[in-house]
Each structure stands twice: as C-alpha cells, then as structure tokens.
Amino acid sequence: MSLHASTTPQFKQNSRDALADENLQSALRSARNGFVGKRAIARAKMGEDEFDALRNRGRDLKNHVLANLGDYLEAYEREVIASGGHVHWAETAADAQAIVLDICRKAGAKTVNKGKTMISEECGINDHLSANGITPVETDLGEYIIQLRDETPSHIIAPAVHVTVPQVREEFLKAHTHLDPDRDLSGLDTLLKEARAVLRAKYFEAQVGITGANMLIAETGQSVIVTNEGNGDLSQSLPKVHIVMASIEKIVPTMEDAATVLRILARSATGQDMSVYTTFSQGPRRAGDPDGPEEYHVVLLDNGRSNMLGTEFQDMLRCIRCGACMNHCPVYQTVGGHAYGWVYPGPMGAVLTPSLIGVEEGGHLPNASTFCGRCEDVCPMRIPLPKMMRHWREREFERNLTPAATRWGLGIWGWFAKRPALYRLATRGGMAGLRLLGRGRGRLGKVPLAGSWTDARDMPAPQGDTFMAQWRAKR
Amino acid sequence: MSARDRILGRIRRVATGDDIVWQGGGATPAIARTSGADRVERFIAQATAADATVTRLDGLADLPAALAEELRNRNLPAAIRHGAEPDFAALDWGTVAASQGMGRIDEPATLSKARCAMAETGTLVLTSGPDNPVTLTFLGETHFVVVDAADIEAGFEGVFADLRAAGSSPRTVNMVTGPSRSADIGQVLQLGAHGPIALHIFVLGA
Q1: What local confidence, expressed as pLDDT, does residue A1 receive?
Q2: In what order do the strands lie in the sheet with B107-113?
Q3: Tell me, what's the pLDDT at A34?
Q4: Which of A105, A450, B157, B167 is the most exposed place for a label (fewest CB within 10 A)?
Q5: Helix-strand-coil percent breakdown of chain A, rounded to 5?
Q6: Mean per-residue pLDDT over chain A, rounded
Q7: Count of structural domains, chain B
Q8: What does the alpha-carbon distance between residue A218 and residue A389 come to, in Å, rounded to a whole number?
Q9: Candidate from B12, B130, B139 with C-beta closest to A289
Q10: pTM for this predicted structure
Q11: pLDDT by residue (tens digit) across B120-134?
C-alpha cells in the first residue's frame, strides 16, 4: 500500500481546501506570471512561425513513433544491450517497484539517489524502497523540499511550486540538525548553499542512482535527461549503478528527432532556449573511463499506456511533460497541483489520470475545465486536450458515474434540445426572466440555482434577442 | 509469456505501422543556420545570455596565462583539475597547480575540452572519457571549458554530424548551456544549484 495514495476522488473538497490555503495561493500567484510570459518571449525570439512548424514536426514525429511503437522499442532495446546495458519491461507500477528493488538489493544499496523522475512518482518507488529498508534521497532541489515535507509534487517540472520560502526555511531547520540551529537562513542564497552542501555529500554515499528520461533514442539506445540543476547527472555519474525509469512512449527514432523535441521542450516549459544540462547516456562506463556507473539499467514502464493506443486517448501519448498546459490553465492556476490528487495535475493530468488509474478514480478531473482551450493552444505536441476531456465526460456519463443532479440537468436540457421549437420558446422565456431580474442594472447579483457562480461575480443580464432570432432577422 | 511479449503484443495489435519512410529531424529554424563569423558571435551571445562568461584566445598557448588570470580575478586558489586531454598535457601551467583525474567532493575549479559547440543556443558539447571525466563538468564550483572556434556548429544537426563522424560512442554526451541553476526556492532563479556556480568559456582561434 502506497503512503501517497490518490486523493483524486476528493477533487472537489481538495479544491475548496486549496482556495482557502493562504500559503498556497501566495505561491501560485508568484508562479503564474513567470511561466506564461517567459514561454511567449522564447517563442517570439525563435520566430512564431518557425516555432509552430517545429510543433507540427513534433506532432508528426510522435504520431509516427506511436504507429510503429513495437518496432522502435525493439530497435531501442537492441541498441541498449549492444552498448552493455540492460532493459527491463514492467507492465505495471508494482512490476517496476519489484524490478528496481531487485537491482538495488543486488547492488547492496543502502541509499539510492534520485534525479527527478515522474515515472518513479507514478510507480511509488520511494515508498517501496523505504518499506524495504533502502533510503531514497531526492536530489532535485524541489523534490528534496517536498520529500522533507512528505508530499508529492504539485507540478511536473516545478514540484515544490506550492511551497513558500518561510516553509522551506522551516523544513531545513528541522531536517539539517547537524548544523547550528541559530544559523542565518534569511537569504534565498543561504538556503540554496545549505541544500547544495547537504546533497553534495549524499552524491558520494549512494550505491544506486535513479533518473527519468525525457527521451529514449531508438537509433543509439541513449536515454536523454534535461535538467537545470545538474543533480540528475551527479546522481547517474557517481554511484555504481544507474537505473533509468521511462515509459514506453518516450521513444524517438534518431538524435535529430531528439533535437526537434529539445527545440520546443524548454521553450514551452520554462521559456529557456535550452535547459542548462541535456545529457545523452548510453550503457555503463567504457573501459578506461575514470568515472560513470558500472551498470546501466532501463526500466520500460507500460502501466496502461499500450491500452491507450488505438483509442481516442492515443494522442495523449505524444506528451513530452513540459507543463505548459498547467502553466496556462485557469483551473490549475487557482487550485494548484495537489487538488488533482495524483501524480499528474493540470489538463494533461485530467486526461492521463483516468487512463492510468481508471475513470472511477479520476473521473472528476476532466470536469475541472472551462474548455477555454489555452492548453491545446500552447501544447508543443498539439495534443487536443479539451477534446479528450470531453471523451472522458462521455465515458463517465455512460458508466453512470456522473452525479444525479448533473444527469437530471442534462436530461432536461436534452429533452428540450431534441424539440427545437420548445427549446427556442424556453430560451426566450429564460432570457425574459433574467432580463426582468436584472432590470435597470444590466447585471444580476443572484441567479436561481446558480448561487455558487454568483457568489463571486455578477451575471450579465441578457441583451437583445436570442441568437436564433437575430440570425433569422439578419438572414 | 514474458512482460515484454505481453506489452509488445498489446502494442502490435493496434499499432500496425504507417508506411512512412522516416527522415529524422526537419523544420530546422533560422537560428540554427548561422555561418562564419556570425556563428561564433551567436555562440558567444547565447552563452552569455545563459549566464556563462567568455574570453577569446588566439590559441592554446595562451590558455595557461588566461586561466591563471581568471582564477586570480575570481579569488579562486591557483589550482585546476582536468582529465587526460592531450591538448592540456602538453601545456606548462606555470604557477597554477594542475592535477589530473575525476571530480572530487570539493573541487573549486575544473577544466574540460569541449568536443564541439552549438551557436543556436550557446551550448557546449562534451563527451565523457579518460580525456574528459564527466564528473569534472558537474563537481567544479567554477567550470572552465575550452572550445575551438572551428568546432562551433550552427545547430543540433552539425553537432550530431560531428559525433557520428568521430565514430566514438562515449558513455555520455553532455550538452551544457550556462552554469547550473534552480528556481525551486520561492520561484526565484539562482545560479549554482548542484553543478557549477560559474561557467567560463575560452574560445580558441577565429
């Protein structure tokens, strides 16, 4: 049993709690403005047309990979083995846990260093290693902070985006007991220096390093990681054993295809032209190499992805985990990542979570959207996220998982919609009613049955005639 | 049946191929198509924008003096750690104490030779091996990197062509764009996370 079980079914309560959490709201406010503006500038600097052409190329690239995924996975596996590495296939999260634990035990590992990997989060690797007497140490600064707080990431590229500076200070004072309790931690730089020193020592202690992979290259058998801190590289270069955890859809055919993804990844994520470190790793250290791991293992995770192929959710497998969809999402910006209750938040999480843990668990998430479409607008892989959320709503409805009040409302709407004359009459009547309620002010402070909507803002009173009436008049 | 066979079986039931003869890459943007002096200039401008510092030198013979001066100006000890790079072995480091080997836990300054570089983004490309231990790239507080101007490619395409032409297959190819950084504390970007706090590049030749 994972210590961090999904709270996705409580999405609505999670959201209410998030809105009332002053620390969270202050952290979200400071994050919101950064990401959106930086992406826009990075895109403009390259030239918007060229950037968008790369997005098209990225989409076509991943569509091609998915259509030939079996062949590419086999080619990739051959290359990894040829360069002296090992490939392990994991059908489920539990399989991945068992594979990783087995490798760690064979290496005699007491501590395991972790670069940032969402696949490890998906598989609950930390809890599994801890339960079996092996200490996982998160080395990405954000992951380190949330590990101290015993939390899961709230953003796929900025895992501690919900944590405020005073909260970080408090955790460091609590955790770093070997240091003077009265030391000066007032500056941001002192916090960073302290984390750097504490983790620097840990890099040399671990027997195993685990990283994720932004891509797996079929042509060469290389795994690629993209980081800004350098922690993923220290985690994979100093221990005896390097384990890469990656899901099956991370494949690209060639190094040049990796370039296509790299050209849109950092710009979409943080607005950088290029992340600081992009590392291509192939097999264990070579004969004569003074450093690098002696063993190289890749754990290829399926965990429900092969079942998405050929369905209306296949396009989701193009995702390169940049986080642009959540950075631009009004819902994510308001409730933060933890409200989503599982590993993947925001629009990409709203589509992926029901695919991976089931619509019974994750069915609320596709409803957490205004369908404003910004996620699809900014997605570097042009994933039609709103369309796929609609598909999930349909499935939720088909399985009778939609709440009674919603079904009842949809039933009434459907009855009218199938009777156009009555529908028009009803909308005209509704309009007249609302106009009456808003008389003189042009807006309504209260609308029957929409109390929670009008609690926070006024509803504009309808003006003029219905769309159908205007259309008939102007035709 | 193994997990591998079951996964591949599920995939192949629906993913049955698309008849496309795939050509890798494509859609190369203009920023990745510079040439001549523009290429070197773009490399320097992009590296500087990524918070690296750059000095141009006429040739390798000027490196020891330039390095000694940089160490002095940065108030660093007169010592450098580097790998078995043949270019460095032949140099007389003078007053700077040079040592060879992989990175250690406390490493004030390290020196590497880049295999090539990329003007597109101001990125250095290093390949691991005895000549260039990978840990030197990440453990040095200040990382010095030497690159020949002639090895600066316009973009990714040129870099991958160089790597293929070299025919070697190093354990890691490290693309480095500026010193390490993190915005994980309060969403404020700070330089020097786990890797180098400063990155200084010596560009050799015109």
Answers
A1: 34
A2: B53-57, B198-204, B140-148, B107-113, B79-82, B97-100
A3: 86
A4: B167
A5: 55, 10, 35
A6: 94
A7: 1
A8: 31
A9: B130
A10: 0.94
A11: 999 999 999 999 999
Q: Say if B27 falls within a structural domain.
A: no
Task: Measure the CA–CA gap between A149 and A169, rounded to whole angstroms.
Answer: 12
Q: pLDDT class for B76, splitting at 50, 70, 90?
A: very high
| For range A27-33, the mean pLDDT | 82
Chain B contact set for A281 (CB, 8 A): 171-172
- The interface predicted TM-score of the complex, written ipTM, equals 0.98
Query: Tens digit of pLDDT for each residue in A409-463?
Result: 889 999 999 999 999 999 888 888 888 888 777 888 888 778 888 888 888 888 8
- Residue of A88, A91, A277, A309 to mutate, interface with B, max B Cβ within 10 Å: A277
DSSP A216: E
Which chain A residues in 379-398 lie under 8 Å from chain B, judged by CB atoms?
Answer: none
Beta bridge partners of A342: none
Evaluate if residue A3 carries a pLDDT over 50: no
- Report CB contact under 8 Å: B30, A282: no
Q: Which of B3, B8, B194 sits opposite A196 (nearest CB)?
A: B194
Q: What is the CATH number of the domain that holds B71?
A: 3.40.50.10420
Residue-wise pLDDT tens digits, A295-352: 999 999 999 999 999 999 999 999 999 999 999 999 999 999 999 999 999 999 999 9
Whether the CB of A302 is below 8 Å from some CB of chain B: the reply is yes
Give a yes or no: residue B19 inside a domain: no
Please, what are the domains in chain A? 8-301 (3.40.50.10420), 419-474 (no CATH)
- CA of A280, closest CA in chain B: separation in Å? 5
Range of the domain at B115: 32-204
HSE, side-chain direction, 13 A CA sphere, residue B74: 21
Which of A196, A220, A279 has the CB atom closest to B172's CB atom?
Answer: A279
* Domain presence at residue B95: yes
Between chain A and chain B, how many beta carbons pairs sit less than 8 Å apart?
259
- Is residue B3 in some structural domain? no
CA angle A144, A146, A152 (to 5 degrees): 125
Residue B14, helix vs strand vs coil: helix
pLDDT of residue B145: 98
Q: Summarize the confidence of residues A16-20 as an average pLDDT.
A: 94
Strands A277-281 and A222-227: antiparallel
Give the residue from A410, A399, A369 showing the smallest Cα distance to A387: A369
